[in-house]
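Re: that chain you flagged

S.,

Sorry for the slow reply, it's been a week of failed gels. I finally had a moment to sit down with the sequence you sent. For the record, here it is as I used it:
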Amino acid sequence: MEEANRTYLHEAVKHITTFEVDLWIGQDGYPVRAEAVSTGAEGTTRTTAKFSDFGKADPVQAPPAEQVVSLDQMNAETDQKLKEADKRLRDAGPGGLDPDS
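Prediction finished late last night. Pasting the structure tokens below so you have them in one place:
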């Protein structure tokens, strides 16, 4: 795992004090169900996952090209919208989106 990802993961779970998992395995050797309980400063979280149809291919169809954007394009569009919103706020008088402005 890359260092940046390891750091992010560590920060995301460092508040967890306990983590327990119950795992059910089917006769075919594949997991059928997993129940996880984690406890931390923010309380207790319970998660259940159910698994089925291992080895079965799901049909996947790509969306039309006009419905697809790259992450870079999406981020650029979002940045532009934030800049426009910041300008409108500044022009209206209450200040911009930057809390230090």
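What I noticed first: The chain has a mean pLDDT of 88.

Talk soon,
D.
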